[in-house]
Every structure is written in structure tokens, then in C-alpha cells.
Amino acid sequence: ETLKRLLSIRRFLVDATDKEEEQVVEFVHRHPERVLLIFDALDEAKVVEGSFVWRLMQGTVDNLEQVRTVICSRACEALSGLVQAGAFHRQMEVVGLSPSKVKKFVQSHFGQDLETAKKLQETLASRPEVMKIMDSPLVSSLVCTQFKRKKELPATITGAYLSAVETILHQSTKACLSARDDSTSSRTKAWEQWPSGVAELAEAGYYCITEKKNSFPQSKLKSGLEKAVAKGFLSLGSCPPGCGEDEYAFTHHTFMEFFGALHVVKELTADNADNKEDS
């Protein structure tokens, strides 16, 4: 039963049937040597020592010892425990971009804009905490984009992602406000036909972003809760840490940012349509 929950394909294929889910579990039991499970972002999950998932990673679940697992994670308590337990046959540590590589990345990102590249490098020299999070090309790109637009730097990876969302919303704002009458009316019609609960999820996502919070009170949503939880968009009173029993949280920042962006598009297209009618 635990394996069935773990491998539930309905999180990815909403039209999957009970029979199809049973076939997946049956295949794993009959051919464990042909199964590869990838646990991505282990550091974002709550994996308790001795739990089914923990034992599956260790290869100590009866009849599933031959299942191969790949784990991707930043440093975290669960990963350290698995390493100490000797759960891995092979480990690979990705160090990321060195300070000298970050410098080259900045120069490449800004190209002919040598002045901005020089200012960012000078700023980074006094902000070692930002250099630490620029160990991947994606984060380095987000930092460069924020510095170019706002002349400031994020202090955390989350801040870099939120800044990226703000940039996207900023660009969407200009696009929406310059839209023609026909495109505006079609966009307005689109959000008016959203399924029940989507508009409230969008408002909740926007609330979390603007208030810099990870969770929101139950009163923010009046409909669509069961669908949102069932589809994995929301969790109640369990995630993230510190979330109250009567509070909901998006299960991943990606969902929060997506729905928040939907809210902005909805408000902008609606306001634009109203302004054109008034004029």
C-alpha cells in the first residue's frame, strides 16, 4: 500500500485509472531489477529515518532490494543519515561554479555592457553570501538579471527566484498594458472561464509572493480546496515547517509563482478592459 501511494501516477496523469495504477505497482513487484526510481530534491522532502522511503533508498525493503535508486539533493540531515548508513554504492558531488567561473559568467552575460558587468563584480566582492549561491548558471543568470533591472542583489536562492518572477511579471505588465482591444477582450474572456477555484488559488499565490510568506489562512480560499490538495498544489498544516494547522501552503514555490502570475495577468487585463470602456 505504501508503494502504491509512492508510485501514484495520478499526480502526473490525472486521467489514470485504478487498474493502470495497480499495473505499475505489479510491474515493480514482478521486475524490481528493471526499475529505476529517481528521488529529486531530497532536501525539500521530509524523509524520516526508518520510513518506507528511507528503506527503499537503502535497498532494505523485502522483495525490492534490486530496485535501483538515484538521489539528487543539496546537503541535508536525511542525506547525511543515508551516507552514514552506507546506503549508496556511488556518490558524485557537484561543486558548481568557482568564483573565477562566476566572474567569467558575468562578463559573458552582459557582453558589451562592460560598465554594468564591472559594477556587479565590484558589488559581489563585498557580498560573499551572494557568491555562495551563484554556484549554478541558472542562479547566476537570475542574479545578473536582477542587478541589471533593480541595481540590487538577492541574499538567498529563494530571493533570486522571486526576483525572476517579479521580472517576468514586470514584462507581462508592459505586454498586457500595450495589448490591443481584441486581444484584451479575448484574454479577459479566458480568465472569466477559469475552472472553479483557480482565481482564488491565483489570489493566494499573489498574496504569498507580495507578503513574502510561505503559507496563507484557510479563509483565503472558499472553493477548489479538495481539487487543489488532491492534485498536489496545496497541503494543509504540514508543509512548510511552522505552517499552522488551519493554514494552507503551496507544495512548491513553482506553483505559488505560477498562480501568482495568473492573478497579475487577470488583474491587468481586467483593469485594462475597464479603462478602455471608461475612455
SSE blueprint and pairings:
Blueprint: H1 2-6, H2 18-30, E1 36-39, H3 52-58, E2 68-71, H4 77-84, H5 99-110, H6 114-125, H7 128-133, H8 137-150, H9 157-177, H10 181-192, H11 198-211, E3 215-217, H12 225-230, E4 234-236, E5 247-250, H13 253-278
Parallel strand pairs: 1-2
Antiparallel strand pairs: 3-5, 4-5
Helix pairs in contact: 5-6, 5-8, 8-9, 9-13, 10-13, 11-13
Instruction: Provide the structure class.
Output: mainly alpha
Query: How many strand units?
Result: 5
The dominant shape is flat
Unreliable sequence segments = 179-188
Q: How many DSSP H or I helices?
A: 13
What integer is the average pLDDT? Answer: 76
Widest β-sheet, arrangement of strands:
3-5-4
The helix content is 55-70%
Strand-residue fraction?
5-15%
Topology as H/E string? HHEHEHHHHHHHHEHEEH
State Rg: 23 Å
Straight-line distance between termini: 62 Å
Give the assembly state of these chains. Answer: single chain
State the major sheet: 3 strands, antiparallel
Describe the structure.
There is one protein chain. With 279 residues, the chain is mainly alpha-helical. It is 56% helix and 6% strand. It has 13 helices and 5 strands. A 3-stranded antiparallel β-sheet has the order 3-5-4. Strands 1-2 form a two-stranded parallel ribbon. The radius of gyration is 23 Å and the shape is flat.
Summarize the structure in short.
The protein has 279 residues and is mostly helical. It has 13 helices and five strands. The chain is flat and about 60 Å long.
